[in-house]
Design goal:
By secondary structure, the chain is α+β, with helices and mostly antiparallel strands. The protein folds into three domains: 7-189, no CATH class; 251-336, Signal transduction histidine kinase, dimerisation/phosphotransfer (DHp) domain (Helix Hairpins); 344-492, 2-Layer Sandwich (Heat Shock Protein 90), CATH 3.30.565. The protein contains nine helices and 13 strands. A six-stranded antiparallel β-sheet has the order 1-3-2-6-5-4. A five-stranded mixed β-sheet has the order 8-10-11-13-12, with helices on one face. Helix 1 packs antiparallel against helix 3 (185-233) and helix 5 (306-336) packs parallel to helix 9 (460-470). The two termini are 31 Å apart.
């Protein structure tokens, strides 16, 4: 199954696809940029923490040396009991060899309280004795940093025995070692939240953008729809109609202007063709009339041989046939040029159909076709009597031509809810479904050779269609090949000078 999408839908889908790719690219770039920024920011923070602690310990060590030199202080071994501190930060229960261990501990604790609660700090002297250790650290954590840093700050990532990943900044010098760690799970939580926000916002943004894209496409293509509808209403009978939109100074306006220029050229060409048909028909009437008069005059000569008389009669038939074609062509040309003025009057369709039935009996006699009048209601309408007679006679003549010998033709006139229905049904050769839309075209013949043999001109049904349209009616065709054809004429039972009646199917 071929799925055909409108341009509006295609533009919306393409817009959505491009926006989806942009969102994916932007989301991926934002994710990795945020991850990199957070990692760099964490490294800077850890490095600053280590620098502060190292600098503080160095200052304390220098101060301690000065005191020893002056002999103003004595070494005192202090054994610090374990202290419980809020926010999971505790002083290590290990002994300190520095005389002002309390001051060191409180300075580090005060600094730790100003930092994120998840920051883990471990400070040891050069003998491996801890001055300060965060509660969440154990002695085994120091095993991950056995390498010498030589005073430089080392940044690395390690996993604990509990499989927790941490980022750590580590340094070691003559005074001892300092390291500060931060769990990577905190960064992962931030990135996960960012990803969830992206998953929530992206579909909403995509839907809003698709709605906006559809609206923009609809607004942009709306003039194209108007041009399409206007073009569908233009036919050979109203080529003077203009397509809206040529006032726009854009691609749509130029398209409408081009269409109007093309229609104007077609209108001019059609007008010349119609005028030529009318002029040619008018010019041909005179010589045909003269030829007819001369042939009829010659036939009055009793001295003509039988062979000559047959030739003249054959010529007279051709002249009469040509004259009928010229009259029909001239009638259609007048209708195209809006020169035909119908004679509106009250028409008794009952009488017309009765006369049609009588004419049918005589015309079908030679082919032994059975003509019947099944129904003939009393129906009166407004119309052109001459043209209505021509309409039904053309349909009857067409039925007789294409119905074989010993066939049947049925006529009927019905009044049905404000509509006059005239049916002409035959048991002829029928018309294929592919041919039905073409039979009302001028000079169109289904079987060209057979039509010429029967004397058809290809204008009878065209004139019938024009007369029906003139009266605001509708003509329908139902046909089955080799079984017959039914022409149904629907005429409104009201003033035909008003808006054409929309005859119902």
């Amino acid at each position: 199954m071929n799925l055909t999408l409108s341009i509006r839908t295609k533009l919306t889908l393409w817009y959505a696809l491009v926006l989806t790719l942009i969102l994916i690219f932007f989301g991926t770039a934002a994710y990795f940029y945020t991850k990199r920024t957070l990692s760099e920011s964490l490294d800077i923070t850890l490095r600053n923490e280590v620098n502060w602690l190292r600098q503080y310990l160095q200052e304390r060590a220098e101060l301690q040396k000065k005191k020893k030199k002056r002999g103003s202080s004595r070494s005192v071994a202090v054994k610090k009991p374990a202290k419980e501190v809020k926010d999971s930060i505790t002083f290590s229960p290990y002994p300190s060899e520095w005389t002002e261990a309390d001051s060191i501990w409180y300075q580090i604790y005060e600094h730790a309280m100003r930092n994120p609660k998840k920051t883990l700090i471990n400070v040891r002297n050069n003998k491996g004795i801890a001055f300060y250790r965060s509660e969440n650290l154990d002695e085994n954590d120091s095993l991950y940093f056995s390498q010498q840093s030589n005073g430089e700050i080392i940044l690395t990532t390690y996993r604990t025995s509990d499989n927790e990943e941490r980022r750590v900044a580590y340094t070691q010098d003559a005074n001892g070692d300092v390291w500060v760690a931060y769990p990577m799970s905190e960064l992962d939580t931030i990135l996960d939240n960012l990803f969830k926000i992206f998953l929530i916002i992206s579909p909403v943004a995509l839907l809003i953008a698709m709605g906006g894209g559809w609206f923009i496409a609809y607004s942009s293509l709306k003039p194209v729809d108007e041009i399409t509808r206007a073009a569908q209403q233009i036919s050979a009978s109203n080529l003077g109609q203009q397509i809206p939109g040529n006032y726009l100074d854009d691609e749509i306006g130029r398209l409408a202007a081009t269409f109007n220029e093309m229609i104007a050229r077609l209108h001019s060409s059609f007008e010349h063709t119609r005028q030529f048909s009318m002029d040619a028909s008018h010019e041909l009437r005179t010589p045909l009339t003269i030829m007819r008069g001369e042939i009829e005059l010659a036939l009055r000569d009793e001295s003509l041989t039988e062979e000559t008389r047959e030739v003249l009669l054959s010529l007279l038939d051709e002249v009469l046939r040509m004259n009928a074609i010229i009259e029909n062509l001239m009638l259609l040309s007048k209708s195209d040029l809006n020169l035909y003025k119908p004679m509106w009057e009250t028409v008794d369709l009952h009488d017309i159909v009765s006369e049609l039935y009588e004419d049918g009996i005589h015309l079908a006699y030679t082919k032994q076709i059975n003509v019947t009048l099944e129904q003939n209601d009393e129906v009166v309408c407004m119309g052109d009597t001459l043209r209505l007679r021509q309409l039904f006679l053309n349909l009857l003549d067409n039925a007789i031509k294409y119905t074989p010998e010993h066939g049947s033709i049925r006529l009927a006139l019905q009044r049905n809810d404000g509509i006059a229905l005239v049916k002409v049904e035959d048991s002829g050769i029928g018309i294929s479904q592919e041919e039905i839309p073409k039979i009302f075209n001028r000079f169109y013949r289904i079987d060209k050779a057979r039509s010429r043999e029967m004397g058809g001109s290809g204008l009878g049904l065209s004139i019938a269609k024009w007369i029906v349209d003139l009266h605001g009616g509708k003509i329908l065709v139902q046909s089955t090949v080799n079984k017959g054809t039914t022409f149904i004429v629907k005429l409104p039972l009201k003033n035909t000078e008003s808006v054409p009646f929309d005859a119902r199917e």
